[in-house]
Design brief:
Blueprint (H helix, E strand, L loop, with lengths): L3 H8 L5 E5 L19 E6 L4 H10 L4 E4 L5 H7 L4 E8 L17 E6 L25 E3 L19 E4 L6 E3 L2 E2 L1 H11 L1
Length: 192
């Protein structure tokens, strides 16, 4: 999200979270925003950013949550625990070892499971959701990666006890960073 009018239109739909990408290599990268007063959990998305910069941007934009999409360690995540909501993202494919998440338990609030690619999210690709059955920790998770108007109804079949929510991104955009409000309205009606 980066266009003020689009931010307001999406906020009016009352999503729980709204993401703002502070990763310069992303086509959704934001440079300046006026998001202080929107009534959602404002989430800054970062990739391997230094702790000081994350703290600075979290303060500047009064972020409620951070979503970490790089190689951030459990200790890195713990720096922010109890200051903001910490969401740690991982790319999942058939070789993903869910045991590697154990050191993050207690240091993050949520995991986000995205499709594993060479980039850091936003691929529009879906992974095999049956792999989620291998996840055994008590930390709740978001599902991301290739969610679309065509498959959003299938999300309701995921019965994992830690399944918390979905991250709707590229397939719900007109262009990178500009959400298609009509598609979101349809998705929210299905999910809610």
């Amino acid at each position: 999200m980066k266009d003020p009018g689009n931010i307001s239109a999406v906020a009016a739909l009352q999503p729980d979270y709204m993401g703002f990408i502070f990763y310069p290599q992303s086509p959704r990268f934001v440079t300046e925003l006026d998001i202080i007063e929107i009534p959602v959990i404002k989430t800054g998305v970062f990739v391997n950013e230094n702790v000081g910069k994350v703290k600075k941007l979290a303060g500047k934009y009064q972020l409620d949550a951070i979503q970490l999409h790089g190689n951030e360690s459990p200790d890195y995540c713990e720096v922010f625990k109890d200051k903001v909501i910490v969401i740690k993202a991982f790319g999942v494919d058939e070789t993903f070892d869910f045991e590697m998440l154990v050191p993050y338990a207690g240091k993050v609030d949520y995991f986000l499971f995205d499709t594993k690619t060479g980039t850091h999210g936003g691929s529009g690709l879906t992974f095999d959701w049956s792999l989620l059955n291998k996840y055994q920790l008590d930390v709740p998770f978001f599902l991301s990666g290739g969610l679309s108007p065509e498959n959003i109804h299938e999300v309701k079949t995921i019965g994992h006890p830690q399944f918390y929510g979905v991250d709707l991104n590229s397939k719900f955009e007109v262009e990178p960073g500009l959400k298609d409000v009509d598609k979101l309205i349809e998705a929210f009606e299905i999910l809610r």
